[in-house]
Specification:
Layout (H helix, E strand, L loop, with lengths): L5 H20 L4 H23 L7 H29 L3 H6 L1 H7 L1 H16 L3 E4 L3 E4 L4 H20 L6 H23 L6 H15 L3 H4 E2 L4 E2 L1 H13 L4 E8 L2 H7 L2 H22 L4 E6 L2 E6 L5 H12 L3 E3 L2 E3 L3 E8 L6 H8 L10 E2 L5 E2 L2 E2 H15 L3 E9 L4 E13 L3 E3 L1 H10 L3 H20 L5 E5 L2 H4 L4 H12 L6 E6 H4 L4 H12 L3 E7 L6 H6 L4 E4 L1 H8 L4 H11 L5 E5 L4 H9 L4 E3 L9 H11 L1
Parallel strand pairs: 10-11, 15-17, 17-18, 18-19, 19-20, 20-21, 21-22
Antiparallel strand pairs: 1-2, 3-4, 5-7, 5-10, 6-7, 8-9, 12-13, 14-15, 14-22, 15-16
């Protein structure tokens, strides 16, 4: 026959290597891996059939059967590569949804299968003559046309969706598919040099190296798809205007699992629980895919909108019960959120940003995005744009809440509080805006605007009326090594004296043993600024830590004030007074709303109070009016 089989044997070597690679790297997760395995299997069978069908020792009837199967699996390899390309371009599920279109995709293959069956009777594709001698029929071109059609369509899909791949990936894929088409043409022109299967094996090797590396898209801690994979997937789906849902889960006590059990044991437990939830979700909707976004946050993406409540209820139910595996039983605490796309969010960047911050936007176990829906979109997903726009235009407002001295019987200070009113969405609540800004690194720029406006308002309207104003500093600001110099420069610009400012830090920030944070607090103290600890009673700081910080004001959180109002733990409060007051630390109680609580604090010799009883949080003009009335 004169067939050159060296390339086929080389192809088998590459394919065996790839098979071992799949087993060792566990490339069996997700649609992409599964289609890749189908392509590999078809190529493997085709290469073996190509070799056996070229042996002269095989009887002619067997050669006819073997070559028939060879041509079928060759076409199956081409259509498998096409579906692989569809999956890379995220149009695979679009094909599945359009049943008639999906069926029509198989039409060229069906026509070719019909031609193969007809060849058994009319030898229109090929025939084996005594010798044996292989001879092509007049319609053999159909076999090559089917391959060209599927491979060309694959290349078009890759090019149309090129933005979803890196330059290296795109180059590798395009070169591989061009070589695939080229080898098919070469095979048609030079039939006795069997190079096509070797080039197909190299194509699969290229895809394995550039596209099928699990470490690129799998998180090995949970064996779910990772953050990068989630980002790429939602971007593709939104670009294609697909409708889908995302259930977000953030485990608030995940760190406890790793502190209670050995690391490997905790990882195995995590994987088992994640696999169990994933399997249950897929039983409800087979399209459900689970992603691990890092920081104990998961995302369930699924396409069947009618199943959204079922999947959300499943997740909430499972997280409400202890999970058990290999002798470990652990109850996860989780926050969840259901997002409808594209109704709630049509921008991938906003969706990804929200997925990594949603748990900071609520104290409850479930965040409902529906109340934030607006005819222009959903506020929760527009926060990034709103904040960027407000930073650029410096359109933030500063409201003030008076701080009343029980001993001097007057307002001695005011706390500057951030507010924002958007033209489209109205007032943005601080509890929603500030945690988001902190997580997205925007709080530094926002705080600078607040500081500038507060300094300006104080020197023009409050100097001589109040002793000082209090300004909040976030933990992120406190870790900025340039903070003391920036504040000093800003104070000189506006003519503010250090004794006219007290900087508030939260109790959580005060509890952080961070070198940069400690250095900045020390530098601010050395410049003459005073420090107040806000929200005392809600964090984890200890007395020795507070005393080491050399603070000037200790602000008791409203929850502590409520305890005092109920007459609970009065002895404990008196004990705290006896510790801090002799050291010159002023004691301020937040959330004071009634005369009874104010009088009780006066008797207990607290220093300052802050709350609705004396002053609400109000705009600049209203606050000035309040000061005039209080005189």
């Amino acid at each position: 026959m004169g067939f050159n089989l060296y390339f086929d044997f080389a192809a088998l070597t590459v394919l065996i290597f790839l098979t071992f690679s799949i087993v060792l790297k566990k490339q069996i997760i997700g649609t992409s891996n599964k289609i890749y395995i189908i392509v590999l299997s078809c190529t493997f069978v085709t290469a073996i059939l190509d070799i056996v069908a070229s042996l002269e020792q095989v009887p002619i009837p067997w050669l006819t059967a073997l070559n028939t199967f060879f041509l079928f699996f060759r076409a199956a390899t081409a259509i498998s590569l096409f579906f692989y390309a569809c999956n890379l371009g995220q149009v695979y599920y679009l094909l599945l949804r359009r049943k008639w279109g999906f069926i029509l995709l198989f039409l060229p293959l069906a026509i070719f299968v019909g031609a193969l069956i007809g060849n058994l009777f009319n030898q229109s594709l090929f025939i084996y003559l005594p010798g044996p001698t292989y001879q092509r029929g007049p319609f053999i071109w159909i076999a090559y046309a089917v391959s060209y059609l599927y491979l060309s369509a694959s290349l078009v899909i890759i090019l149309v969706n090129r933005k979803y791949h890196s330059k290296a990936q795109l180059t590798a894929i395009i070169v591989a598919f061009i070589l695939q088409v080229g080898s098919s043409i070469f095979q048609f022109l030079v039939p006795n040099v069997l190079v096509e299967m070797f080039v197909t094996s190299l194509t699969l090797l290229t895809l394995s190296l550039f596209m099928e590396n699990p470490e690129h898209f799998i998180d090995y801690k949970t064996m779910n798809f990772n953050f990068r994979s989630f980002t790429v997937t939602v971007r593709r789906m939104l670009d294609l205007k697909e409708s889908f849902n995302v259930v977000l889960i953030h485990v608030t006590n995940a760190a406890s699992l790793y502190s209670l059990y050995p690391h490997e044991q905790a990882i195995a437990f995590n994987r088992a629980c994640s696999a169990s939830l994933s399997e249950k979700a897929r039983k409800i909707d087979h399209s459900a895919v689970v992603y691990y976004l890092g920081s104990a946050t998961f995302a369930y993406v699924f396409r069947d909108r009618s199943k959204e409540e079922a999947i959300k209820n499943l997740i909430q139910h499972d997280f409400s019960l202890p999970m058990t595996h290999a002798g470990i039983s652990f109850l996860f605490n989780a926050k969840t959120c259901l997002v409808n796309c594209p109704e709630d969010c049509s921008d991938a960047t906003s969706l990804v940003s929200f997925a990594t911050t949603f748990f900071d936007l609520t104290e409850s176990d479930s965040l409902d995005v529906r109340p934030y829906r607006h005819h222009r979109g959903n506020l929760l997903f527009e926060l990034d744009h709103i904040l960027e726009n407000a930073i650029a235009k410096k359109s933030f407002s500063v409201y003030y809440q008076g701080i009343y001295s029980l001993k001097q019987k007057r307002f001695i200070a005011a706390e500057a509080l951030l507010r924002l009113k958007d033209d489209d969405y109205g007032t943005i609540m601080p509890g929603l805006m500030i945690p988001y800004a902190e997580r997205r690194g925007k709080i530094v720029a926002i705080s600078r605007v607040v500081m500038e406006k507060s300094f300006d308002f104080f020197i023009h309207h409050l100097r001589g009326k109040l002793d000082y104003i209090e300004i909040n500093l976030s933990p992120l600001q406190l870790m900025d090594p340039n903070l003391p110099d920036d504040i000093s420069s800003l104070a000189k610009t506006y003519g503010i004296k250090p004794e006219e400012i007290i900087f508030e830090i939260t109790e959580g920030a005060a509890a952080m043993e961070d070198v940069a944070l400690n250095n900045n607090i020390k530098a601010l103290r050395e410049q003459g600024y005073r420090i107040a600890i806000d929200d005392f009673g809600t964090g984890y700081s200890n007395l020795s830590r507070i005393l080491r910080l050399d603070i000037s004001v200790l602000k008791f959180d409203r929850s502590m004030t409520d305890l005092l109002a109920k007459g609970e733990q009065d002895d404990a409060f008196l004990g705290l007074f006896s510790i801090f007051s002799p050291r010159g630390i002023k004691l301020l109680f937040e959330g004071v709303e009634t005369k009874e609580v104010a009088e009780k604090l006066t008797k207990m010799k607290a220093d300052h109070i802050q709350g609705y009883y004396y002053s609400k949080t109000i705009p600049e003009e209203e606050f000035l009016s309040l000061l005039e009335q209080s005189r």
